[in-house]
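testing teh design pipeline on a random one, pls ignore if ur not involved
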């Protein structure tokens, strides 16, 4: 079984005297910087001069260009998008990394697929929260923490594990528990969720909308039942608390029987496409496809996104949200 580390397994004082550089002040970067500062860690931010730079300054951080922030840091946290990491790393990170420093990734993509190959004289670690940035911050402020995956790929200093666990504690992750993993496992699980689980969920809603509206059910009733009410948010909240099947006790017996007796109609049908997606991820087929897409200027990506956003369900959903008085921010 995988090891899980908690607050008592990490010593925060290991970070005393160290400067942590947060490279990229987006949702994760902002949450990491603020959590670390609130834990007493010395933090600086590295970013290009844009609105994120301005926000970091407004939040009270010392902000530098990326290369200068790297040069000033003992621990460098890479929190910029996957698609720019390779270029930024080669030109603005690697030449300025301190020998015996540490580089930390919040997602393993660039290491897993060989887009970045760090120098041998630095520690290389993974600290990947299973939560979006705003959730990382909100949980920390509430006295809790987001769970995360942790791994050490390269231990140049011999103390990479104590350092990454200290960082996890400062971020609040060890309050919940950080699970020992690897760059490979974290990347492949994350991509599998994105490419197999979520497409099935999204396609289910698209097909349900199409079938029901074509059979004469009103658009308003269909969208409220499927999406707009927010009921599914609460269902999945209970899935997290009770378990995928155990949460069924919160439903009527009619609902329980209907779900349990019909699962078999669908589950075997999704096996083959899910395995295909996993094989594309593990073999590197997807990563090569995505790198080519970037090199071609995102032509296919832009087309797919435009088509998705122009679907009738999107237009109808926007209209219904305006008409319903639901406090979505409170769900």
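output:
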């Amino acid at each position: 079984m995988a090891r899980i580390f908690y607050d008592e397994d990490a010593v925060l004082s290991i970070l005393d005297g160290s400067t942590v550089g947060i490279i990229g002040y987006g949702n994760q970067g902002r949450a990491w910087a603020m959590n670390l500062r609130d834990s007493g860690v010395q933090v600086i931010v590295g970013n290009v001069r844009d609105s994120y730079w301005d926000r970091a300054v407004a939040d009270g951080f010392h902000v530098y260009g990326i290369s200068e922030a790297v040069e000033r840091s003992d621990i460098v946290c890479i929190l910029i998008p996957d698609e720019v990491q390779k270029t930024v790393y080669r030109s603005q990170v690697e030449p300025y990394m301190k020998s015996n420093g540490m580089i930390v990734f919040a997602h393993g993509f660039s290491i897993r697929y060989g887009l970045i190959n760090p120098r041998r004289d630095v520690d290389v670690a993974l600290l990947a929260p299973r939560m979006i940035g705003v959730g990382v911050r909100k949980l920390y402020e509430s006295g809790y923490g987001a769970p995360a995956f942790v791994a050490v790929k390269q231990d140049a200093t011999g103390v990479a594990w104590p350092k990454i666990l200290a960082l996890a504690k400062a971020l609040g992750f060890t309050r919940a528990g950080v699970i020992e993993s690897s760059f490979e496992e974290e990347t492949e699980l994350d991509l599998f969720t994105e490419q197999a689980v979520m497409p099935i969920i999204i396609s289910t809603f698209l097909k349900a909308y199409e079938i029901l509206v074509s059979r004469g059910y009103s658009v308003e009733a269909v969208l409220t039942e499927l999406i707009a009410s927010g009921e599914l948010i609460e269902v999945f909240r209970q899935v997290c608390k009770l378990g995928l099947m155990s949460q069924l006790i919160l439903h009527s017996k009619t609902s329980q029987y209907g779900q349990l007796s019909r699962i078999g109609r669908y589950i075997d049908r999704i096996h083959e496409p899910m395995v295909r997606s996993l094989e594309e991820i593990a073999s590197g087929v997807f990563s090569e496809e995505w790198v080519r897409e970037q090199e071609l200027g995102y032509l296919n990506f832009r087309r797919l996104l435009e088509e998705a956003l122009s679907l009738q369900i999107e237009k109808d959903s926007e209209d219904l949200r305006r008409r319903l008085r639901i406090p979505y921010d409170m769900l």
